[in-house]
Amino acid sequence: MNLKRKDLLGLKDISAEEIEYILDTAKTMKMILMSNNKKTPHLQGKSIVTLFYENSTRTRLSFELASKYMGASSANISSTASSVAKGESLIDTGRTIDRMGTDVIIIRHPMSGAPALLAKNVKSSVINAGDGINEHPTQALLDMFTIKEVKGSLKGLKVAIIGDIYHSRVARSNIWGMTKLGANVCVAGPATLLPPLMEKLGVKVYNTVQEALIDADVVMGLRIQLERQKKGLFPTIREYSRFFGLDEKRLMLAKKDAFVLHPGPVNRGVELTTSIIDGEQSLINEQVTNGVAVRMALLYLLTRRGGMSEAAN
Amino acid sequence: MKLLIKNGHVVDARTGRNGVFDIVIEDGIIREIGKDIEITSSDLIDATGKYVIPGLVDAHCHLRDPGYEYKEDIESGTASAAMGGFTSVACMPNTNPPIDNQTVIKYIINKSKQEGYVNVYPIGTITKGQRGEELAEIGELKFAGAVAISDDGKPVMNSSLMKKALQYASMFDITVISHCEDLDLADEGVMNEGYQSTIMGLKGVPSAAESVMVARDLLLAEYTNTSIHIAHVSTEASVDLIRNAKKRGVKVTAETCPHYFSLTEDACGDFNTMAKVNPPLRTKKDVEAVIEGLRDGTIDIIATDHAPHHIDEKNIEFNLAASGMVGFETALPLVITYLVDPGILTIEDVVRKMCFNPSKILGLNKGVLGEGRTADITIIDINEEQIIDVNKFKSKSKNSPFDGFRLKGVVYHTIVNGKAVVREKVLL
Question: A196 to chain B nearest CA, in Å?
């Protein structure tokens, strides 16, 4: 099978079959990543640009290394050091990049829908590396990959996502993706940080973290943005930590073999205690490695659309 | 030279006339309405099979002149209005400079006389510079020609100032039009807060942001025993509040716009900036409530909130995109398709809500088809269908989510002060 799509804008409009295909391809990519020779020719002759309107360490580096490991020519643009700072529109910036022979543009943008707007106006494939509070599909793919590595499948698993759901593009993408793969997703967080009508997305909404954690197979913490407190969405970091933070006692409500994910960077002691972050149930570091594998898979699949025959392996 | 309109189905809200009549117009005035009138050497419009109604009156539009002529100006805006069957339009004051002084009022009136296709009536601001801090010179605005006052585009957040505005304006018998939006509740949201905002990851505006302020303004009007007009009603709660206030005897009138009874928040799906408006498109329940409000008379008028924006202000990220859609050239077809065709409103109701009532609220001597009245007349075919093509709009701007919609209702002729400005669907 081939990915027929030109772009990856989110997991809302992608099939379970396509997700599984990306995750299967990522397995092969992880083998390459873990080997001594990380150079493969999968993207030889391809040109990849990262266009980041927001700061990022892991996502950007992850994409850049993924493209370099597979032999692509890559370049990066940040909004502060480009014509964007001169007020150039997103569409004009995209078209300029497009005309330089780019195959894939990876965009992160503080506004929801920006990658969709770009994709409509460029010939290059567009990958959403996080848009506003909408989606962060590659993060969700790496989360699902990590879960599958450990559990084999997401079918029937209880996944508890805890924290600032409202502002989390990671949560949204994971909800779309995980429910498609058969997981039972639930969310919990302060009422001010839960968007309306979440139930219609096929998730359970709990008022307390404890309820969400009971018998969970996977627990996902989310980063809390400190400026949210100043906007009055919760009173203090201390109170947040007390009622919504994850400590060892609370984690015991989950299944014994449950593990913990977090998209990072973690506010230590706020969302998770250090003992959990660095503990045996944490797969946070593994997520980072898997992120590169998933992005290698995705870049490969999007650049070969309509081309070469089956499977990366 | 006389103009004779033959065999049209004449509908008028005030006189109650409803049947096939001929109309004779001379020197801009309706001279005679009767059966089988034959006059020689007259200009003739055959209106057989069409409705002949008073020219439409829009109590809420944006002509963008002065200051934003790249979006629209008085000439293009009134051309667009004429194509939509409007013979009189009242333009909101969020221009640059805003209409908060008599100089701008005079500029608009004079330019409209020179370049306008239809009658233009400026609306002045409630507060200086629309800043919401001090009352504008409301008396002077009225005597310079303002037909109402509004800070439209922005609410008057300060309740005490709004109370004073209602009291002060009532002395001059000038209508106060309130843009109801609690900015703290709206909190920089860009669409309705609901399922669509949740799945698109866009910051939502709760419907309460409108209704809370509708409640406030109704209480203030009641307390001060003054009248108020609520602009662009979009929520179920607002309709309920206005209905209850009317029952209590509060002097309130209200308007809605075609997009609030024809579209839901779903129109914003796929980040469609053409559907970004303020107040935002709401849910099916709200749409149903707005329709019921129109049916039972809670909502007195249908206004366009014609809000032209340049393509570059729409073809950008949803958060950054300007709010508003052009409305003149789709208003009547939307009313026919969504309200008349399903049997919610009759043509008489339409005449009341788009001609007579807006004219009354603004204190204009318009909206009536009667002998001796100014000949502002619109002739429409409510059975003919059209496919909306924004590129054919006479407005400078093409920002409409209705592009490609198949709608019923076509404006054939628009006659302003006895002169046809649109004839057989062509702008003259």
Answer: 6
The residues in A 183-222 lying below 8 A from B, measured between CB atoms, are 195-198, 200-201
Residue type, B151: D
Q: Tell me whether residue B305 is one of the annotated catalytic residues.
A: yes
Instruction: Report which of B12, B96, B1, B2 is spatially closest to residue B356, judged by C-alpha positions.
Output: B12
Q: Which residue has the tokens 């788009």?
A: B354
Distance from C-alpha of B285 to C-alpha of B236, rounded to nearest angstrom: 7
pTM of the prediction? 0.94
pLDDT per residue over B186-220, tens digit each? 999 999 999 999 999 999 999 999 999 999 999 99
Q: What residue ranges of chain B have pLDDT lower than 50?
A: none
- Six-digit token string for B198: 């949740």
Residue of A nearest to B200 (CA): A134
Residue by residue, DSSP assigns B332-371 as: HHHHIIIIITTTSS-HHHHHIIIIIHHHHHHT-S-S---T
Q: Which helix (H) or strand (E) holds B23?
A: strand B18-26
Mutate to test the interface with A, among B199, B203, B268, B318 (most CBs of A within 10 A): B199
Q: Which residues of A touch B200 (CB under 8 A)?
A: 112-113, 134
Among the options B22, B182, B286, B305, which is catalytic?
A: B305
Q: Supply the ipTM of this predicted assembly.
A: 0.90
